[in-house]
Design goal:
By secondary structure, this protein is an all-alpha fold. Helices cover 84% and strands 0% of the residues. The chain is rod-shaped, with a radius of gyration of 20 Å. The relative contact order is 0.08.
Length: 45
């Protein structure tokens, strides 16, 4: 049983790392889009 526990623990660690990477990537994309929308605004005067 110890082997399956180790395997599931490694799998869980990999999934958590993947989830964190996806979250950071999503935040970076949102930040880039917000920055781009601020830069492209035309000046009123």
């Amino acid at each position: 049983m110890s082997d399956t526990d180790d395997d599931s623990g490694e799998r869980r660690t990999k999934l958590v790392k993947a989830g964190v990477a996806v979250g950071i990537g999503s935040a970076a994309i949102v930040a880039a889009l917000l920055y781009a929308s601020k830069v492209k605004k035309p000046k009123g005067k």
